[in-house]
Amino acid sequence: MKYTPHTQKDIDTMLDAIGISSAEALFDIIPGDIRARNFNIADGISEIQAEKELVKTASLNSSGLRYFAGGGFYRHYVPAAVDLLSSRTEFTTAYTPYQAEASQGTLQALYEYQTSICRITSKEAANASLYDGGTALAEAVIMASEINRKNKIIIDSAVNPLYINIIKTYTKHLDLEITEIPFKNYRTDKKLLKKSLTKKTSSVVLQNPNFFGAVSDYEDLIKEIHSAGALAVASVYPLSLGILKTPGRMGFDIVTGEGQSLGNYLNFGGPYLGIMATDKKYMRKLPGRIVGRAEDKDGKRGYLLTLQAREQHIRRQRATSNICTNQNLMALRAQIFLSLLGKDGYSGLAAKNHSRAEELKEKLKKIPGIELPDYGATFNEFVIALPVNACKLIESMLENGIFAGIPLSKFYNGNFITEKNNELLVCATELNDSEDINDYARLMTRLMTRLMKKEVSS
Description:
The protein has helices spanning about 10-20, 45-60, 80-85, 105-120, 135-150, 160-170, 190-195, 220-225, 245-250, 310-315, 330-365, 390-400, 410, 435-455, and strands spanning about 65, 125, 150-155, 175-180, 200-210, 230-235, 255-260, 275-280, 290-295, 300-305, 380-385, 400-405, 405, 425. The protein is an alpha/beta fold. The protein folds into 3 domains: about 15-60, no CATH class; about 65-75 and about 345-455, Alpha-Beta Complex (Aspartate Aminotransferase, domain 1); about 80-335, Type I PLP-dependent aspartate aminotransferase-like (Major domain) (Aspartate Aminotransferase, domain 2, 3-Layer(aba) Sandwich), CATH 3.40.640.10. β3 (about 150-155), α6 and β4 (about 175-180) form a beta-alpha-beta unit. α3 (about 80-85) runs antiparallel to α11 (about 330-365) and α12 (about 390-400) crosses α14 (about 435-455). The model has no long low-confidence stretch (mean pLDDT about 90).
């Protein structure tokens, strides 16, 4: 049976009933400069043809490319048990399990996920996941404003620029005033940020490690933030918490993060997993769903969705948040992943990621022409300055099977970053072994020499 069973006669009847000549006319209200130019969709194909196309597309995942790109989304090893357990029929469903009748197995898994998030962040309460790291951070900013009834938001510009754009989009029609504080030498400009604090500041948004991989201890800064009556909001790379000081120990009030690195694949950009945790006193302001554990009159343990009064289906326009879906399957995978690793495995994996990046950093330091800005400790990724255009170098390395990194010019266009377009954000994970790192360094040396000669001759 076709997915869309309407015949052309059915379609013509419906169009005639609403007084238009074609389905495309439904979109005439959209300005021409932002609408798709062509709504024509190819005719359906057979199941055999569809399978061939899907296999062809899936094969791109194993094209042989070796990845050294991060920027908030990372290629990590996913144990086979994660795929096996998360695909069991007890967990797979077409239904979004957000109502009270969700199965006890699903609710228990989410409860355990919340427990794990609290443990790795050193916070007291977590929700049962949000869409992704960016939307979780935007929800945290709104949550902070709901808590202290202030509307001025300060964002460190070393936060992932994609996340900053999401915050701006989320809050565009809210009474919130956003100020970005320029970073200094790829790090938070703490002095400038402190000067920007006022009694009207609702929250300060920081990231650790930041977009450039820089690791910081924000404990002293957070004390200043709290003294001004504001809340400290963090975006974290959860895997790094295996070896870094946790946001809870630093004093952050609300912690968010992208959970893709916890047992989830890159998947061409999603679906991903938004992590969010806070203190117990702010738990009623958490957006999304919270699973609780209770006992019935006979003392039998059970799990249920709790604190539902805040939800939009009850409070409507007075709701803390209008988000209505959690990433249940992705959260389940994250919980399985963390359970498989255990405490020692979690710390060991974080240490392995750090050591791989440091190994690559040492190799690149020895290549003539490459500069590594000195901005202190980093985790997983770092910035290098090239003597050639970063985009040109990436193209050349791609031809040789290596994805060299992310050009910072794609995000900053001369703002905060030098206008030479030669900065490259490089990343290494546990999947980049010493052979990959050596090949990267050798190819980088050879190609840079060639590209530099071309630029000199031109």
